[in-house]
Amino acid sequence: MESGVLPRHIGIIMDGNGRWAKKRLLPRTAGHVQGAKAFRKCLRHCIDLGIECVTFYAFSTENWKRPKDEVDAIMKLFSDYLDEGLDMYEKDVVMRFIGDRTPLSESLKQRMEKLERETAGNSGTTCCLAVNYGGRDDILHAVKTLSERGEDISALTEDSISSALYTAGLPDVDLLIRPSGEQRISNFLIWQAAYAEYVFMDVLWPDFTEKDLDTAIEIFEGRNRRFGGL
Questions:
Q1: What average pLDDT score do residues 163-179 get?
Q2: Which amino acids are annotated catalytic?
Q3: How many domains does the chain have?
Q4: Helix %, strand %, coil % for the chain, to 5?
């Protein structure tokens, strides 16, 4: 990685928690607990590498279809993370949460807003957690927002839509990583990842390590990014 150009924005689909637990004859919730540990390690490594922005797909708009006890366990882990804040990192991290917050509890929403306010003035890595997020919903939300602002829909540009997305102000995704062996992006950052390099890896998220992240970045650095040119 010393000779290459690091991606500015990495998107990570944290997939495989349930399968990790099933392989060990454990409840699915145990996989999410282990997955939260992998998230912390991966975020720390992104900070150490100097990555400008990293977005983790924590909970999709479709994940509400899962069993209630599993959804409750994920929300409990999310709540614990908010309680911890950023003390564990001892870094100059900026926190952002993207997605529709409407169905979340008032307590969660208040703590999310508080953490965003407290870290807004920082200048280090931006960590985005996608919670109740869907790429199509993101675009729909942006168009509705522009309409409510009185924008002329016929005059919309790509830049104006980007400015109304949940990720407004952040660079587009350069590298999108999905562990677990699945090879799809599952409605994650579909606008922002239009020119991303996709790296699919055969490791379940709870087993994902800093070495795996390094491998994905090395693959990215070996790609020839032409953006439609020659």
A1: 97
A2: 15, 63
A3: 1
A4: 45, 15, 40
Q: Evaluate whether residue 19 is within a structural domain.
A: yes
- For helices 68-84 and 28-49, give the axis angle rounded to 10 degrees: 30
The residues near 118 (Cβ < 8 Å, ≥ 6 apart) are: 85
d(CA 94, CA 144): 27
pTM for this prediction: 0.92
226 lies in a domain? no
Contacts of 154 (CB under 8 A, 6+ apart): none
Q: In the beta sheet, which residues pair with residue 55?
A: 11, 128
pLDDT of residue 14: 96
Please list, in sequence order, all residues whose beta carbon lies within 8 angstroms of the beta carbon of residue 38, skipping any fewer than 6 positions away: 14, 205, 206, 207, 208, 209
Nearest Cα neighbor of 218 from 93, 35, 49 is 49
Distance of CA 190 to the CA centre of its chain: 12
In this structure, is residue 4 part of a structural domain? no
